[in-house]
Design brief:
By secondary structure, this protein is of the alpha+beta class. The strands form 2 sheets. A 5-stranded antiparallel beta sheet has the order 2-6-5-4-7, covered by helices on one side. A hairpin with a 2-residue loop joins strand 4 and strand 5.
Length: 162
Amino acid sequence: MILFTALLPPQDVVAALESELARQGVDPALRWSPPSNWHVTLGYYGDVPEIPELALSGRPAPSLRIEGAGTFPGVLWLNIAGEGLAELASAAGAGADGRKYRSHLTLARYAKEDPDAGKAWAERLMAFRTEPWVAREAVLMRSDRDERGTSYRVVERYPLNG
């Protein structure tokens, strides 16, 4: 089973983002993630046979906000900024593989051969900002793939202090 820990944006942040995307007009050239899949990954564990032991409950709750956008090859994302996020991600295992942690919310995917598709959208969304919110819990999520695409479901919840 493929597992990762994440923070889920609250409904008012989801609504603000949905409104912004509706205002911008969604580009069919991109494969947009449904709002039900929006999350901020903390730690990625990959295909593991059992649920890992995680010491996340009771950790300080980070204060977050969306500000700006960017791309990885084939991925359009929104930047997640805030106090306490890097520390929580580190506790969840981010960076254990030697890669630098980059807090983000994946919005869409596109053909890596067409980097301009993502770059244009990143520029359009660069000024998008949300009000800050406090993440009251981290979640362990399972990723499942079928003919309809990828879906995520919460396996465990870790309440945060704050």
